[in-house]
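Give me structure tokens for this 306-residue protein.
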Amino acid sequence: MASHFELLLVLATLFTGVVWAIDHFFYLPKREVAVEALPEQIEEKVKDAVRRESVLVENCRGIFPVLTFVLVLRSFLYEPFQIPSGSMMPTLLVGDFILVEKYAYGVKLPITRDKVIETGKPQRGDSVVFKYPPQPNVDYIKRVIGLPGDTVLYRNKKLYIKPACVDQNGVENADCKQFKPVDMDIVSQGDFIQDSYPLTEAHENLMGIEHSILFNPAFAGRPEYFNQTGKRQGEWLVPQGEYFVMGDNRDNSLDSRFWGFVPEQNMVGKAVFIWTSFEFERPLDSWIPSWIPSGIRTERIGKIGQ
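Here you go.
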């Protein structure tokens, strides 16, 4: 949906800009010449009528600057997204509306997504929006767990990471020969419930990046993990130029464990701010449609923490 809107926005901007430019540089001078050729005694309202542009040109002239502003803002600075699922709970909830910093990982052209200016790369712990590799017209949001060259191991609901010996900035890491467990401290049990199952909340220290996660202690795990050639079940070596991502709601997230890695080209941007948050909690027998918000969570508005 976002890709279709971007295409329509680009086409509308081009159309209104071309119509305005053709009139301004080609037809407007001709109209001015026609006005100058009129007798001096002709009333001004007649001259204004000769100068006047068509309704189409007038509308395009008014709309073009607005569309250009929206296109630049959305394509190169910030783009709004809505959180549609609970895969990033407790960091992001269903009904959160977020802003994504588009220039965080490079300035890219709209539609083609070709990078024209390098501004940075995804970092471990970033909450990122990206084009879902199996279906690039769909946007996903997950957390970056593994960087290029890292080896990620997920076993018994715990993460282990063996960092790359040379990171994506070319810096060598001598301590890269063994897996490092990602520390996790239990915070609460049962404060979050999904599909009638009480979830356990924990704080995770992702190699210096602290954030909260959820997992279902009664859920044994799924057998359909993505298997990488030469690696054990639940172990993945992140290729160069790609990233391993996971949802914070570990047992309710379709992520790199199941479909593989995210190419850097697919990265849309970094989630940085919640600008509003709606609740959609109503009894099943309510006469009000489920898509109408039942309340606003004002306490969630603000910068997205790790």
